[in-house]
Amino acid sequence: MTEGPTATAATTPGSENGSALLHMRGITKRFPGVLALGGVDLDVRRGEVHCLLGQNGAGKSTLIKVLSASYQPDEGEIVWDGESVRLTTPVAAMKRGISTIYQELDLVPGLTVAENVFLGHEVSAGGFTRRGEAADRSRKLLTRLGHGEIDPGRLVGDLSPAGQQIVSMARALSHDTRLLVLDEPTAALDQEEVRNLFRVIRDLSAEGVAIIYISHRLEEIREIGDRITVLKDGRTVATGLPARETPTADLIRLMTGRSIEYVFPPRPERPRDTGTPVLEVRGLAGAGRFRDVDLTVHAGEIVGLAGLVGSGRSEILETLYGARRASAGTVTVDGRKLRRGSVRAAVAAGIGLCPEERKSQGLLLDQAVYRNVTVSSLSRFAKGGFLDSGAERRRAGELTESLDVRPEGVDRAVRTLSGGNQQKVVLARWLLRECRVLLLDEPTRGVDVGARTEIYNLVRRLADDGVAVLVVSSEVEEVLGLSDRVLVISDGTVVHEGPATDIDESGVLDLVMEGDVA
Amino acid sequence: MSDTPTTSAPAADTARVEREARRDDRPGRLALLRSSTGHNLGLIVALGLLCVVGVITAGDRFADIDNAMTILRLAAVIGVVSIGMTFVITGGGIDLSVGAIVALSSVWCTTIATQTMANDNHWLVMVGAAVLVGGGCGLVNGLLIAYGGVVPFIATLAMLASARGLAEIISERRTQIVSVPAFSDAFAKEPLGIPIIVWIFILVSAIGWVLLNRTTFGRRTLAVGGNPEAARLAGIDVKRHTVLLYVLVGVCCGIAAIMLVSRTTTGSSTHGLLYELDAIAAVVIGGTLLSGGRGTIIGTVLGVLIFTTLSNVFALNNLSVSAQSVVKGLIIVVAVLLQQRLARRSDVT
């Protein structure tokens, strides 16, 4: 059906003469309450390394899931090798030669390298696996990737992350891959392993395999990429930019410049850092994820943590909430030190968390709104263990009304609400507990544009009522717009601290992408 | 979706979200069937049909007050176990050891030592022994699962083996006959013409309903079973709660053991065989989610009654136990398929 990748060989990386392999036009994908992709265009040529750039939530992951047919697009056309195709299942995409290697490698640790490489299309005869041949063919693929030293008989679970990645790529190549999608492939690799990976990528593109390369690291893109497509808010804002020549400033402007301006509530003019802080964190460290984090939040203040995914932002929040165990450091609320690693101690001290994964960590989706609101304050509605659900409904009703949760009705299942309204339900939970410190992890993830401003206003209103708020977001603009003070996190340490008005989005991106102070 | 793809202004998005949310409001044709009331109604209809079949095939032998009491007495023991099982399953767990705990409790409360103490003091000694043994087994299960990190299936499987083994050791595999007259007298009473053990079943069901639907304990059970991570982050002590759930089912097993001892006037290591399967089946066709987070006591009671009535109808018609098992299996499969079908449709809208 498809010609082998070698048939289109001899295109050198970086050259413009690669012929068109893939055109995605006007790809649109909606999820309930969110427009994830609003008409994305992408074209990829044979043998090129095409970089996909964009902030978190720009739609990169959704786009590659559409390409690998994990998602079906609502609208748009995919032209593959000159022919308009509908990719209905991941297997169909694979058969056309599209392979995706996700950040979370999808290998079976308990099987051998060879078994993983041919998982789902085992080398067999009459129903019996042919282990010898599978091993031979795996060895050939691994050698082609420059890693002939990996024994096909080894268990994948025993390999390093870099080795596992090579096995993933071998698996992709076992399918006659013509387009390989790599999602943040270097996230778990050290420098030497990154160099190896790049060599493999160059070899593949020299053989005519096209690569879609997703990374936050600009220096990598400069080194390995040919052309760049920039996504922002689910749209293509630039395509076909030369990877080496395009100035960093232009790329950052493209990634951050917005078609929709969020409206942030005004900051109150008041002297900062007065009095004793409500929340005080000293020398907090979490094994391998972050270290030496000092931060303070005063009553009425919003402090933001900015940083990339994997920088340790969310881990810091979860650790000071007691949901992860700290390896060092202290957390103090209103002068009282918290017991380490105890959520109950944190909640008792007046800390509330709106977690990053609202649906899996925050909500009881199938339960009524009022039950989600009262779950942290049940004792308040109980006499001798018996719940006064009338009082629960009334109180939850008042709170959800004051937060303008729509549609109204405290008996409806939380699942039926939109992302923004679900977030308000979580906020109502902590309002009810009258918490002193509110931790917000990605407060507007999955919240559509219109509802964001509402959430921002709500958070500011809480702060004005004297709550100390700590916000984490991968959207730099959100952190800067919402906070009074910002801490920039990179590789698990605080690299910058200062008033939010003293730094702009590109300044933050410089800090986290280039790794040094601008 | 008739929206043009180009609109993504905040106002349009908000309007769309609201519209979608409102759509969930609309009472669908299946809304009643999906609700727990509808599910219970379905079970009542099934039970009614079963009774009609009973009347047609066995006539007066089925439609007889004594026969009704027989059904209820049989349902009572497994019913109490199933109430406990409802809590564990709603809380996201499973207990395979209920039958073995019933056996161990029944043996422990009928040893010569216990019976002598009961004769010397009060027959309630036997009740206390059974409940303590049951609760103790539950405590061990709960601690292993919550703090030892053993998955419920394995922890309770181990308890299944050891508790019955222990029962055999204690009883030396002999049937222990009850010779505590006060005990037998107490359980022979029939207030309002209804046997004591049926009253116990009614009482345990009522307490179970209140506990699940009206108390903080019940609410936390739903939270822990529905989303343990969210429950933990909301400040609920998930581990302690899990232990309590297994203690609760253990206590239910202890109560069931006493009922069984009074009904059979014996304690035996062979009591309660396969109760775990009967209880899980009743809970599941009752409408409790096996994955946790949703539970119904009324559904469980109806589930128990359906299975017991089925056995009765089969027995009255001189049909084999084997045929009964086949039908039981079919009922479980059909009930679960139906539930899943309905659940999926409610997801789509």
Automatic annotation (TrEMBL), chain B:
The chain crosses the membrane at residues 41-59, 71-90, 96-114, 123-147, 192-212, 243-261, 273-290, 297-315, 321-338. GO terms for molecular function: transmembrane transporter activity. GO terms for cellular component: plasma membrane. Keywords: Cell membrane, Membrane, Transmembrane, Transmembrane helix. Residues 1-14 have a biased composition (Low complexity). Residues 1-23 are annotated as: Disordered. InterPro entries: ABC_transp_permease. It comes from the Bacteria. It is found in: Cell membrane. Pfam families: BPD_transp_2 (PF02653). The keyword Membrane applies. It is a multi-pass membrane protein. PANTHER family: ABC TRANSPORTER PERMEASE PROTEIN YPHD-RELATED-RELATED, RIBOSE IMPORT PERMEASE PROTEIN RBSC. This is ABC transporter permease. The lineage of its organism: Bacteria, Bacillati, Actinomycetota, Actinomycetes, Propionibacteriales.
